[in-house]
Structure formats: C-alpha cells, structure tokens
Design brief:
- This protein has 215 residues and is of the alpha+beta class.
- It contains 10 helices and 7 strands.
- α6 packs across α7.
C-alpha cells in the first residue's frame, strides 16, 4: 500500500514521501553495510514488527531503492541490496548520524549492534585527511570487536583481525560516541602511539578542542 503524501511541490516533501515513514531510513542504514537477508534485517532492527518490515521493503523496491539478489553458492541465500539510487542516500544517512551523535545520551541504554558503529565512523571519516595514512584501529566494545582499516584515503572494516592495531579504543557504545562529542567526559580508554592517535583524530575530523582533549 502506498504511503501517505504531503502533496507539496517541494523537494524535501517529495523525499519524505519516499523515505519519511517510520523504520525506512533505518532499513537503508542496515543495507549500507552490505547485503542482508530478511532475518539479518530483523536482527539489525530490534523492535520492528515483521509485517512492517515486509511492507517497508516492498515500498523501497517499488521506489527503486532496494532490490533482491541471490548470493552465489555455497550461500545461495536471497538478500536485499541497495540500488544505485538507494546508495545515493549514504550522504543523507551520514549527515543524520553526525547530527544525532551529539544528541545521544551520555550513558548507553537500549539496543545496540556493532555494525552500527561502521555507519557512524563512515559519517565522520574525512578521506582528504587520510590520503597518506596507513592506520589500523581496534574498537573493543562489550558487544564485540571491530577493526577499522584506514589506507590511502579509504576506510574499510575487518571483524576478525589477527594482528595488533595501531590504536585501541575500549569502552561501551556511549563512551565511544562521547569521544566525538566531548572526549573529556568519555569513559573510554585509548591506547597507541601519540602520532597514530593524532592521525586518527584528523582522519575522523576531530579537530580543535576535541583533538586536544584526546591526546
């Protein structure tokens, strides 16, 4: 069933007609980290009713933002992926992530998934500040471990690294988020060479008061 329309000749209203329904942008967030099975989406969207997820996915397919694919053997699973039009929403999600980070509570409560940290880090990443950088960063949270790999202006992730990282950040999700907002109040531990930490700050756009507080 088609969603309700604002019926306004306005680009913002038109965009919200398509992606403004509850859960829709969070589905986009999930698919920005890669193809997902229906069960993966349910796990990454705690609280969404299964019938609503199905309805939102149908709407996104109708709008040309999401499509279904079958992974090659041996997986052979049906997955949902973003189309080119869907992927073009990444800067929108990144802007919302940056805006929302400062509005997160200082203490963690509610559900958290480790892969959400990937979206947050991508929203902060400044490729131009990392063109000559070769750096690995471990985020060690109660929910698991995530390795960020910064190389030649790119940011990738490795969830099962075997070597030692240049910088290690330990804390819960709220503590890690506070590092980007007000590091002096963040209950997170940062270990690593001082130059590597400064390089990480620049790559994530943490300058001025924030950068000096992390050193």
């Amino acid at each position: 069933m088609a969603g309700r329309s604002y019926r306004q000749f306005c680009a913002i209203a038109s965009a919200l007609d398509t992606i403004g329904e509850r859960w829709t942008l969070l589905i986009i967030r999930e698919l920005l980290t890669g193809p997902k099975r229906y069960s993966d989406l349910l796990d990454g969207l705690p609280g969404i009713p299964t019938d609503m997820l199905a309805a939102r996915l149908r709407r996104l397919e109708d709008e040309g933002l999401v499509e279904r694919e079958v992974l090659p053997p041996p997986a052979a699973s049906k997955v949902y992926v973003l189309t080119g039009s869907g992927l073009s929403l990444e800067p929108v999600i990144a802007a919302l992530a940056r805006w929302g980070t400062a509005r997160l509570p200082s203490k963690q409560h509610g559900e958290f998934r480790l892969h959400w940290l990937k979206v947050a880090l991508r929203s902060l990443f400044v490729p131009s500040a990392a063109k000559r950088l070769d750096l690995t960063v471990d985020f060690r949270l109660p929910d698991g471990r995530l390795r960020a790999v910064i190389h030649g202006g790119t940011l990738e992730f490795d969830e099962d690294p075997s070597d030692t990282a240049d910088v290690v950040i330990t804390g819960d999700a709220a503590a890690v988020a506070r590092l980007a907002v007000e590091p002096s109040t963040a209950d997170a531990a940062i270990e690593g060479d001082a130059d590597a930490i400064v390089a990480l700050q620049r790559a994530l756009g943490l300058t001025g008061r924030t950068a000096s507080s992390l050193r």
